[in-house]
Design a protein that fits this description.
This protein has 416 residues and is α+β, with helices and mostly antiparallel strands. The chain has 18 helices and 14 strands.
């Protein structure tokens, strides 16, 4: 790919200042350079909502191209043996598959991971939240990320899958190690850590799936084992990779979305106070669901995704061939004034709110209903328990982890 017909710009994805607050630069790019070629990432980058949504719904773009072409045909280098386990996982799960494999996997996974199963978790999620909040009393400073945002998704996914309590301690570190390899700046150490995480997580899930075949239980691993359509079932490896994906994708979106959302609310105190006033009502969950949608739009936890070109085509004057990559800046599209009125303002009543955070098209996030439920319930429980919550250091910005593909606060010091 040359991008010779496009302006060139190097998106500073490894710059801590950009990761800290990417929105001013993204606004400038939307206005002056909405489509550009990044020579460092070797890809076309899209910043506007209309362009991003069009690519997400266009079947000439996919998450993978190896179902149609060999690496030689695409001009791709041979696989890196240093991340063989990670690549095998990445090439086998639902998110990075294309039809007909994607259609088959999504159908089988959908038989087990149903909206009814997700909504049935509400009472259990509320009980877990109550337990977490019991130790976070008023007038005590704590880290909202480590002490509140992180434990819930791990516990919920672990209980949903049926991972025994004694095996849960490594789930968060495994997830963090695996997703770190999606960052463009990931190096040899990240590769080694991701390899070990995939290997160890797979070993645990393989053991659990074999146990469930012999002794079924009321959990998602058992449901995946038993899911069948027209005589077809998930293979053991497909089951393992699906479970890893559920933890990684669901956990990162929930943790980062809640922490960034609370930070935004505490910086816009009138919105926090409005939610606190609504929280005690039994019928308040729809208010928090709507607020969650706006928080996910306002500060996108997964700012950049990519698509791979599957057919020769022209995109804004650039001739693209199969195997070329296009980066989609969800965080920019979610602040596009051509789509959202006053996009840089937090508006908890925004409706409709067609944000891009969970994607569009056939790869729309399967775990979105669970992430939405966790976020709405977490936010409501926090408002009920600690209505006077405030930032310990209101003049200091929250510190982000350093990644831009998956962007989240490293910590957020608050006091009840």
């Amino acid at each position: 790919m040359t991008g010779e017909n496009l302006p060139q710009f190097r998106l500073p994805v490894a710059d801590p200042d950009f990761v800290q607050n990417p929105y001013p630069l993204l606004a400038e790019l939307r206005e002056t350079t909405p489509v550009f070629f990044d020579p460092d990432m070797n890809r076309v980058v899209l910043t506007r909502y209309a362009d991003i949504s069009a690519v997400l719904k266009d079947k000439r773009f996919g998450r993978s191209a190896l179902h149609r072409y060999s690496r030689d045909e695409l001009g791709w280098p041979p696989p890196d043996p240093a991340q063989a386990q990670f690549d095998a996982f990445n090439g086998n799960h639902l998110l990075d598959s294309e039809p007909p494999k994607h259609t088959r996997l999504r159908s089988l996974v959908g038989l087990a991971f149903t909206p009814r199963r997700v909504e049935g978790l509400q009472t259990r999620i509320e009980a877990i939240l109550a337990g977490q909040l019991s130790g976070l009393g008023a007038s005590r400073a704590f880290d909202l990320v480590a002490d509140y945002a992180e434990p819930l998704p791990v516990t919920v996914i672990a209980e949903l899958l049926g991972v025994p309590e004694g095996d849960r301690a490594m789930l968060r570190p495994w997830s963090a190690a695996i997703v770190r390899l999606y960052e463009p700046s990931a190096g040899p150490q990240a590769q080694a850590e991701a390899e070990r995480a995939v290997q160890d997580f797979s070993a645990l899930l393989r053991d659990l799936s074999q146990q469930r075949r012999l002794k079924p239980r009321d959990d998602l691993i058992t449901a995946f084992v038993q899911a069948e359509e027209a005589g077809d079932r998930l293979s053991e490896q497909e089951l393992i990779d699906t479970c890893i994906l559920l933890l990684n994708a669901g956990h990162e979106a929930s943790v980062n979305g809640l922490a960034a959302g609370v930070l935004a609310l505490l910086r816009n105190r009138n919105h926090w106070d409005a939610l606190v006033e609504a929280a005690p009502r039994e019928d308040s969950l729809p208010i928090f669901r709507r607020a969650t949608e706006e928080l996910l739009r306002f500060d996108t936890p997964l700012p950049m995704f990519e698509r791979i070109v599957l057919e020769a085509l022209e995109l804004h004057g650039a001739a693209l061939k199969p195997g070329d990559r296009v980066s989609l800046l969800y965080a920019s599209g979610n602040r596009d004034p051509l789509k959202f009125m006053e996009p840089d303002a937090l508006n908890l009543g925004r409706d409709p709110n067609p944000h891009l955070t969970f994607g569009l098209g056939i790869h729309y996030c399967l775990g979105a209903p669970l992430a939405r439920l966790e976020l709405a319930l977490s936010l409501r429980a926090l408002c009920r328990a600690l209505p006077g919550l405030r930032l310990v250091n209101p003049d200091e910005p929250g510190q982000y982890t350093g990644g831009f593909v998956i962007r989240g606060l490293a910590r957020l010091d608050v006091i009840g």
